[in-house]
């Protein structure tokens, strides 16, 4: 017997494909995966270890321990100006489980969800696992890889239920300004769509403001009088902000009144998140923030160093306004198959980059460069890319 069709149709994650190949290649320079390289703050580690010492190894409430939900709510108010009750916060096993929780709650078989192209690869993967239909919306170079309202309008059908937004963007490093964000929320309101806002990189922007769609949702400080019912779900994570990728801690901030429903769905998926991880997350949110400040400075330094190398090589790129990625155009070398080209680059020059096609058809000819490594290794790796001749 075969596994279920929807499981067989989940595509290969091309980021993992090239990264695992790089890990198996001695002395390779790995610029393909978004793994923060700093040591985790000591007070975070001690909080998790103290929980183990207290034998805090039992179940927690489905939605997480109360102090952590309160801390996420306080951060949401501080960073976005949006007041949410802690009952609206669900502690998740990383942002990915938050995405799955939202999609499995809001989408049924055959429902359509609009996802960015290029965009993070688990958006269509997760939609397929809940039997929904992922409909890519184009992010184009001539518009700075920002969504256009008219493109989204043209894709809405009677089956469209959700719009996925991601700012700061993985893989693009693009950031939506307040005006665009307001218009996107207005579109969702007019077309009666849920918004799932992936804000994994909200702590890392360069000289621009992070703007959460929740600001313009019903109950938000900039919502119009006719806003109606809340429609924005916000997916957060501590994986990138504090370098806690392995602790698997995120949060889904929801409209009010969904606690009983989401508790049931949490019980049916993960029951709850590891208690020691939750106490570590609480320490991260409420303790010293030096890690975040230092990480942002490092990513800015690496962005500037990487763009200097790309300019020397005459390789076009999208100026990164946020996250810790650079989106570069290698179509002069990739020959119309960037997935094969990055594999060849690893084999011949010992450098791993994420192929743009990992993020959708709109990424053909492009690569994502992770900026979270050592600066010297980043410069060395990018220096091995082929020079682009002037046209």
Concise structural overview:
With 391 residues, this protein is α/β, with parallel strands linked by helices.
Q: Can you tell me about this structure?
A:
The chain is an alpha/beta fold. Helices cover 39% and strands 15% of the residues. The protein is built from 14 helices and 12 strands. The chain has helices spanning 5-8, 14-23, 42-53, 66-80, 94-106, 122-129, 149-155, 178-190, 259-269, 275-286, 290-312, 331-334, 338-349, 375-382, and strands at 29-31, 89-92, 112-117, 133-138, 160-166, 194-198, 232-237, 250-253, 317-318, 325-329, 351-355, 366-370. Strands 2-8-7-6-5-3-4 form a 7-stranded mixed sheet, sandwiched between helices. A hairpin with a 6-residue loop joins strand 9 (317-318) and strand 10 (325-329). Helix 3 packs antiparallel against helix 10, helix 5 (94-106) packs across helix 6 and helix 11 runs parallel beside helix 14 (375-382). The longest helix has 23 residues, at 290-312. It is globular, with a radius of gyration of 21 Å. It starts with a helix and ends in a 9-residue tail after the last helix. The relative contact order is 0.18. The mean pLDDT is 94.
Task: Chart the SSEs and their pairings.
Layout: H1 5-8, H2 14-23, E1 29-31, H3 42-53, H4 66-80, E2 89-92, H5 94-106, E3 112-117, H6 122-129, E4 133-138, H7 149-155, E5 160-166, H8 178-190, E6 194-198, E7 232-237, E8 250-253, H9 259-269, H10 275-286, H11 290-312, E9 317-318, E10 325-329, H12 331-334, H13 338-349, E11 351-355, E12 366-370, H14 375-382
Parallel strand pairs: 1-11, 3-4, 3-5, 5-6, 6-7
Antiparallel strand pairs: 2-8, 7-8, 9-10, 10-12, 11-12
Helix pairs in contact: 2-13, 3-10, 4-10, 5-6, 11-14
């Amino acid at each position: 017997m075969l596994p279920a069709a929807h499981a067989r149709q989940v595509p290969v994650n091309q980021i993992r494909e090239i990264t695992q190949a790089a890990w198996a290649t001695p002395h390779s320079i790995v610029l393909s995966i978004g793994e923060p390289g700093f040591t985790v703050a000591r007070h975070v580690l001690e909080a998790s270890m103290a929980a183990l010492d207290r034998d805090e190894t039992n179940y927690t409430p489905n939605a997480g321990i109360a102090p952590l939900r309160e801390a996420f709510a306080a951060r949401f108010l501080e960073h976005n100006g949006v007041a949410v009750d802690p009952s609206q916060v669900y502690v998740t096993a990383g942002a990915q489980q938050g995405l799955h929780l939202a999609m499995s709650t809001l989408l049924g078989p055959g429902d359509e969800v609009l996802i960015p192209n290029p965009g993070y690869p688990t958006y269509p993967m997760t939609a397929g696992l809940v039997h929904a239909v992922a409909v890519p919306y184009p992010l184009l170079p001539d518009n700075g890889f920002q969504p256009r309202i008219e493109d989204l309008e043209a894709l809405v059908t009677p089956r469209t239920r959700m719009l996925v937004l991601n700012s700061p963007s993985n893989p693009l490093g693009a950031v939506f300004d307040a005006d665009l964000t307001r218009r996107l929320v207005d579109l969702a309101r007019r077309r009666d769509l849920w918004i799932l806002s992936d804000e994994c990189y909200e702590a890392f922007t360069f000289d621009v403001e992070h703007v959460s769609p929740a600001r313009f949702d019903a109950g938000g400080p900039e919502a119009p009088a006719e806003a109606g019912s809340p429609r924005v779900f916000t997916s957060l994570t501590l994986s990138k902000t504090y370098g806690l990728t392995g602790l698997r801690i995120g949060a889904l901030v929801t409209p009010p009144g969904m606690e009983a429903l989401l508790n049931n769905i949490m019980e049916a998926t993960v029951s709850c998140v590891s208690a020691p991880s939750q106490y570590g997350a609480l320490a991260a949110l409420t303790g010293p923030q030096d890690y975040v400040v230092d990480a942002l400075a490092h990513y800015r330094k690496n962005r500037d160093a990487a763009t200097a190398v790309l300019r020397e090589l005459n390789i076009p790129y999208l100026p990164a306004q946020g996250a810790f990625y650079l989106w570069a155009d290698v179509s002069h070398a990739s020959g119309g198959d960037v997935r094969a080209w990055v594999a060849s680059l690893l084999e011949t020059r010992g450098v791993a980059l994420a192929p743009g096609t990992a993020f959708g058809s709109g990424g053909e000819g492009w690569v994502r460069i992770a900026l979270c490594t050592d600066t010297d290794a980043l410069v060395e790796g990018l220096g091995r890319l082929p020079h682009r001749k002037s046209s």
